[in-house]
Design goal:
Blueprint (H helix, E strand, L loop, with lengths): L22 H14 L8 E5 L6 H12 L15 H7 L3 E4 L6 H12 L1 E6 L7 E6 L3 E5 L7 H4 L2 E5 L11 H34 L9 H10 L7 H22 L3 H9 L5 E5 H12 L12 H17 L2 E8 L2 E8 L2
Parallel strand pairs: 1-5, 1-6, 2-5
Antiparallel strand pairs: 3-4, 7-9, 8-9
Helix pairs in contact: 1-6, 1-7, 1-8, 6-7, 7-8, 8-11, 9-10, 10-11
Length: 338
């Protein structure tokens, strides 16, 4: 890390080096970067998506280098047993271009975001276990949205990049030189944000604002908003809009969420109640040929497991889900409140 330089401190230097035209998203990025400098917090995951030619990997590398320079800035999708070692040895984790995020990895990333133990074998030749309780800032890059499991989407900030126009494209050497020159001023501006956040956090907490799932990050956003020319209301609108976008992507990508919404739209009272078996039969009927897809639950038990991850995304559409145990299995109640 370079020594921060207060003279000319300005985080907007970073905007000149990355492919990001949306000011609100850039300010959310600065909020995330400043929060990532504060240790042991529940950090939102930063999910960077865009088409080929959008410089997603370069974007992620610059973002990580701003607060955690590394000779190996980007990792491939990790095996589950390797994640504890990566988390232990890297203050910031950046996974480049995972084609998909399976359920077990999504669960582990959620633990990294909000806190929880990660476990793995000490050596492949024995049964010993190495556990590590950690919170780490995480970046993901992919062509499409990857944080589409509802529980992972609930902890994610989405950054959508567009393909760079040929006239605006810079060489790798030009970007690296520009970053090296601006890094001390960018870092100084982020540290000023951290100082403001630490100074204002208690006062903001007393305001008793409505807080989303990542409440600590939201409080931090309110506290540092003046440092980037925002009001607390500006941050609140931008963050909630970003979360809605993430949830919409999660619903669109999920094999059952669209069919549950369709089921409720067909109900006169916009509510439904029945067993997991009955729900499985109904959404199979609604899904039609889509019910034969590999990712569609092939039993009521599989459906029961698939319901929990999509609950936050459905809640973003005003759908309240309640599940209770009964003698014949699980009773599911669905109700639209808005």
């Amino acid at each position: 890390m370079p020594d921060p330089v207060r003279e000319g401190a300005d985080a907007s230097h970073l905007l000149k080096l990355v492919n990001l035209a949306d000011d609100n998203t850039f300010r959310l990025l600065l909020t995330w970067l400043s929060f990532a400098l504060v240790p042991n917090k529940p950090y939102p995951i930063l999910a960077v998506s865009g088409p080929t030619g959008a410089a997603k990997s370069s974007f992620a590398e610059l973002v990580r280098a701003t607060i955690d320079p590394s000779e190996v800035p980007l990792f491939r999708t990790p095996r589950r047993e390797d994640l504890p070692a990566l988390a232990k040895n890297n203050p910031v984790l950046c996974f480049d271009n995972p084609s998909t995020i399976r359920a077990h990895l999504a669960d582990d990333l959620c633990r990294l975001a909000t806190g929880g133990g990660l476990g793995g074998r000490k050596f492949y030749a024995n049964e010993g276990e190495a556990t590590f309780n950690v919170r780490r800032p995480v970046l993901l890059t992919a062509m499409n949205y990857v944080a589409t499991r509802g529980d992972l989407a609930d902890r994610t900030i989405v950054v959508r990049l567009e393909k760079i126009r040929e006239a605006a494209r810079q060489t790798d050497a030009e970007v690296r030189k520009g970053f090296a020159q601006a890094h001390p001023q960018i870092l100084a501006a982020l540290l000023d944000m951290v100082a403001m956040g630490l100074r204002r956090s208690q006062d903001v907490r007393k305001e008793r604002r409505r807080l989303p799932r990542m409440a600590d990050f939201a409080l931090w956003g309110f506290a540092v908003a003046p440092a980037i020319g925002w009001s607390a209301e500006d941050f609140d609108r931008a963050y909630r809009s970003n979360r809605r976008e993430t949830f919409e992507a999660a619903i669109e990508d999920d094999p059952i969420a669209p069919h549950i919404l369709s089921l409720l739209e067909r109900q006169k009272e916009r509510s439904w109640q029945g067993t997991t078996e009955q729900l499985w039969m109904r959404i199979k009927e609604i899904a039609g040929e889509a019910a034969h897809a590999l990712n569609f639950p092939q039993s009521s038990v599989a459906l029961g497991r698939a319901l929990r991850p999509i609950e936050p995304a459905l809640a973003s559409r005003g759908v309240i889900m309640q599940r209770d145990r009964v003698e014949v299995g699980s009773l599911v109640s669905l109700r639209v409140t808005a």
